[in-house]
Design brief:
Elements: H1 11-31, H2 38-45, H3 49-55, H4 59-74, H5 76-79, H6 87-104, H7 106-117, H8 124-147, H9 156-172, H10 174-181, H11 190-206
Helix pairs in contact: 1-2, 1-4, 1-7, 6-9, 6-11, 7-9
Length: 210
């Protein structure tokens, strides 16, 4: 844990930490953990390396702080899946929220993807703990909807994986998406177009058959 965290931080300390984390997000999302250095982060933050090391002693500490923050944000749409709501409406809203995150947090998405591609050496406990527990809980809710005949029967975990893959594509492969769509389709409206398509794909596919 970084040294200043052991006591109450001042406003300036909080601002400096946020500056460092913002700079580190830019560096890590572009170069990955292994390809990034403290010197690069310090330069991006506009501060000296010794000054940066006052707030975070190691590159690993900065990365850990970013990942912990990312997971809280990244998992919030799944947490909001409400068992008491209409199942198709809940799933439609979940898809929308995931696409909004792809649009608004592309660097965070690349940071997470880079970590997973490296075998998740720094976040495996979080994946096997907090993430798995949440997915198991929501999979049980979806299974309940299926047993009640409210949605078509399928594998709930692979459904969640599929939604992750199709929505996050628009963050991690945004350059490719815009290149293929071209200037007339690759503008800001591409996320709305994607939302309509994915809603049709999933909602129609999960609608119970008569």
């Amino acid at each position: 844990m970084d040294a200043p965290a052991k006591k109450r931080r001042t406003r300036i300390q909080t601002e400096k930490r946020e500056l460092i984390l913002e700079a580190a997000l830019e560096v890590f999302s572009a170069h990955g953990f292994r390809g990034s250095t403290i010197d690069q982060i310090a330069e991006a933050a506009g501060m000296s390396k010794p000054n940066l090391l006052y707030y975070f002693r190691r590159k690993e500490d900065i990365h850990e702080a970013l990942i912990e923050r990312l997971l809280k944000t990244w998992l919030q749409p799944l947490r909001e899946l409400d068992e008491a709501g209409d199942p198709l409406t809940e799933l439609r809203s979940y898809i929308r929220r995931k696409l909004e995150m792809a649009r608004d947090y592309p660097r965070e998405s690349r940071l997470f993807a880079n970590e997973i591609l490296q075998g998740a050496p720094r976040i495996m406990p979080l994946l096997e703990g907090e993430l798995k527990t949440l997915v198991d809980k929501k999979a049980a809710i979806i299974t309940g909807w299926m047993r009640a005949g409210k949605v078509a029967t399928t594998d709930p975990r692979h459904l969640i994986f599929s939604i992750w893959a199709t929505t996050q594509h628009y963050a991690d492969f945004d350059v490719q998406v815009r290149a293929v769509l071209g200037s007339h389709l690759g503008g800001d409206s591409r996320f709305e177009d994607a939302a309509r398509f994915l809603e049709q794909l999933y909602v129609d596919g999960l609608r119970p058959k008569d």
